[in-house]
Design a protein that fits this description.
tRNA_aden_deaminase, tRNA processing, 5-stranded mixed β-sheet, about 170 residues, alpha/beta, binds zinc ion, APOBEC/CMP_deaminase_Zn-bd, Cytidine Deaminase, domain 2
């Protein structure tokens, strides 16, 4: 039976790219761009690796998608991302004229798709995107929580080692 390529299917794909970020010790966020039922680009968080504060998963995926369609407008495209976009990425998504954004976990600290602000549907901007929130939310959120738990543990262990205590 062919797999149904629904929102959950593509979010699962974005989660696989989040794993690539995690393998590089980056905060595990992944993104894919889909057009006409096909994935045309993907990205994962690479800020630390690239020494680039703008190297968020969405940013990388959108840049790649633009090259693929040879257009700076990504009309009729949907972005799937495991974490709610930040204001920087939300701005990019408006510029790119994406039709729709689907995200997994909410980001209470920097989320710009409804959590701290809603840049994607700001009335005074010239383009608004359709938003679907909370697809595979628990899996996306748990991946991030587990990452931060592990990192806190590692930092604690490193401090102990440095202080010579056991
Ligand atoms: Zn971002």
């Amino acid at each position: 039976m062919p797999e149904v390529k629904d929102d959950q299917y593509w979010m699962q794909m974005a989660l696989e790219y989040a794993d690539k970020a995690e393998a590089e010790n980056e905060i595990p966020v992944g993104a894919v761009v889909v057009k006409n039922g096909e994935m045309i680009a993907a990205g994962w968080n690479r800020s630390i690796t690239c020494h680039d504060p703008s190297a968020h998963a969405e940013m990388i995926a959108i840049r790649e998608a633009g090259k693929v369609v040879e257009n700076y407008r990504l009309v009729d495209c949907t972005l799937y991302v495991t974490l709610e976009p930040c204001p920087m990425c939300a701005g990019l998504l408006v510029h790119s004229r994406l039709s729709r954004v689907v995200f997994g976990a909410k980001d209470a600290k920097t989320g710009a798709a409804g959590s701290i602000m809603n840049l994607l549907q700001h009335e005074q901007l010239n383009h608004q995107l359709e938003i679907t929130a909370g697809v595979l939310e628990e899996i996306c959120g748990e991946k991030l929580s587990a990452f931060f738990r592990r990192r806190r543990k590692e930092i604690k262990a490193a401090k102990k080692l440095k202080n010579g205590s056991t």
